[in-house]
Amino acid sequence: MAKTDYQSIDAYHQAFSGDTLARMQTIRKIINELVSDAVEGISYQIPCFKYHGYLIYYCAFPKHISLSHPYSAKFWEHFKADLKGYKTSKSVIQIPNEKPLSEASIRKIIAFQKKENEEKAKHNKK
What we know:
The chain has helices at 9-13, 18-34, 73-78, 103-125, and strands at 39-43, 46-50, 54-60, 64-68, 87-88, 92-96. It is α+β, with helices and mostly antiparallel strands. It has one domain: Aspartate Aminotransferase, domain 1, CATH 3.90.1150. 40% of the residues lie in helices and 23% in strands. The chain is globular. The chain has a 6-stranded antiparallel sheet.
């Protein structure tokens, strides 16, 4: 694999085309709609968004797109039914390229993460 040095999400996206690019652009658009003051960046050479801490990362692979975050136990319990049939780990959800991208599910995930980050920020201020 070639060494990369992405400086922006736009630069990361330029490495892809077709459906993969369209899927990533959709995810980015959803994040920006739901968390308009999220800060975009690159971390670990993949797109990341910060909002009261890390909100979410995403990246593309030949057979899937991953949504990454150190998801909480509360998150996994809440999304148990929604994520049935997807490959997951403690911090990753893989969305296979052959499955339609569920914008509704991504919206729910981002909204949940936003709320969790806001709650953590309030708790940390106390």
